Amino acid sequence: MLSGRPTPAYVVGMARKLRLEYPGAIYHVWFRGHNRRRLFADDEDRKRLLRSVGERVEEYEVRLYCYQLMSNHVHLVFETPRANLSVFMHALLTSYSIYYNHRHRETGHLIDGRFGDKLVEGDEYLGKLCRYVHLNPLETRKARALELPERRKLLRNYPWSSYRAYIGQVKKPEWLDADPLWKMLARSRKTQKAEYRRYVELGLAQ
Fold it and tell me: Which of 34, 116, 185, 206 places its Cα 20 to 30 Å from the Cα of 130?
């Protein structure tokens, strides 16, 4: 028999989705600025976040496959051999939020709620996902209006992405693990970077 008492809202409508964590899980993770605000005031902020990513990757033994920094959101793709997705992301977002608020003399939330995550299953899906992440700078209205050569130039010159390291335009950070995707596309080390560039840039015309 029903008691007649109302069911608490947090039980039926506000319960947080549990994150699935296990050793070797691969995730696509994204986070946004609170109320779509910008996450970075300048390039120093972007550099600081990337330093924090590198430090946390080493500290928590995460395998980072690719990243993309946009103005108000960030994409990361990584594997967690120690099944520590939540701990890793909490440390990363907390450290950057504290830095940002201290540097810019602000208070309150920088990041919009919880970070989003999706499990990645299969090598083919991992390849398509990293291509999607690397093509993200071309998803703006301004970039879509460009002709193909200009879109290609924008992609190759965008500085806040792991793409340039993948295609050999800049030195790859030690904390970025590009080998799985390189080896997926070509066995020869001499052609891996060119093959990855070809694979990603085929998506420009699609």
Answer: 34
